[in-house]
C-alpha cells in the first residue's frame, strides 16, 4: 500500500490502481488479485489460509476485549486502538506452543506469564499514555481489586491538558475466559476532584469481584473536565482521557 502525494486529489480506479481516502491521507492499492476461490482451495495458498485464520481469531479476541469495557472505552480511545490491540493479540497468540500453525489461540497464550505481560500496560488512547499523565505512587490489590493513592495532590501528580479544572479517577475489574468468551466486568466508584494542591487519599473499590476468574484485568480511567458556571464539561471531547490496563493476573 502506498501513499499518494501530489497537487491533484484523485479518488477511484485508474490503470489498475485504486486511489482512496483514509485517516492517513490519500492511499493507493493495486486493483484485483488472486480470486477468493483459489485462495480457499489451492495448496499453494495453505500458508495464506493459515495466516488468515489466525488473523481472524486475533481480531475476534481484540473485539471481545473492547466489548468487555465498552462504557469506559467510549470515554478514552484513539482511532487506531482496534489495530493496536489486534497486534498485541497476535503476539499473545504466538505464545501458544502446542497448537498447529493456523490454529494457535489467544486463550492459550494468555495463560503464560509472557502473555499476561504483553497485555499489561496497554493504553487504549495512545495520545494520553498513563505513564506520561499519572505521576503518583499507587497500590493495587489483585485479590480485592482495590486501587489506592495516598498523599495525592492533583496539581503535582497529574499532567493535565490546558483548560482542565477538574478530573476523575475510576476503575474496573474484568474477569474473562477467552476460550468460552464469557466475561464479567465490575466497575468501581468514581472520584472527582479539582486540580489543586489539596492533599487527599483516593480509593477505588469495585462493586463486586468478577464471577469469571480465568483471567483478570484491572483498568484505570482518568477523565478531564473544564468547569464553567458550576457545570463540568468533558475536555475536548474526551480526547485527552486515559484508559490503561494496570495489571493482568
Overall description:
The protein has 249 residues and is of the alpha+beta class. It folds into three domains: 1-33, no CATH class; 42-119, no CATH class; 130-248, Immunoglobulin-like. 26% of the residues lie in helices and 32% in strands. It has eight helices and twelve strands. It has helices at residues 36-41, 46-68, 70-73, 81-93, 106-109, 113-119, 130-133, 154-157; strands at residues 2-3, 12-14, 17-22, 25-30, 139-140, 147-152, 166-177, 182-194, 200-204, 215-228, 231-234, 242-248. The strands form three sheets. Strands 7, 8, 10, 11 and 12 form a five-stranded antiparallel sheet that branches. β10 (215-228) and β11 form a beta hairpin. α2 (46-68) packs across α4 (81-93) and α4 (81-93) packs antiparallel against α6. The model has no long low-confidence stretch (mean pLDDT 89).
**Secondary structural class:** alpha+beta
Strand elements, count:
12
CATH topology tier name of the largest domain: Immunoglobulin-like
Percentage of β-strand residues: 25-35%
The share of residues in helices is 25-40%
Gross morphology is flat
Total helices: the number is 8
Distance between the termini: 39 Å
Q: What would CATH call the architecture of the largest domain? A: Sandwich
Q: What composes the largest sheet?
A: 5 strands, antiparallel
SSE pattern: EEEEHHHHHHHEEHEEEEEE
The CATH class of the largest domain turns out to be: Mainly Beta
Compute the average pLDDT: 89
Rg on CA atoms, Å = 22 Å
Tally of separate domains: 3
**Low-pLDDT regions:** none
Q: What oligomeric arrangement do these chains adopt?
A: single chain
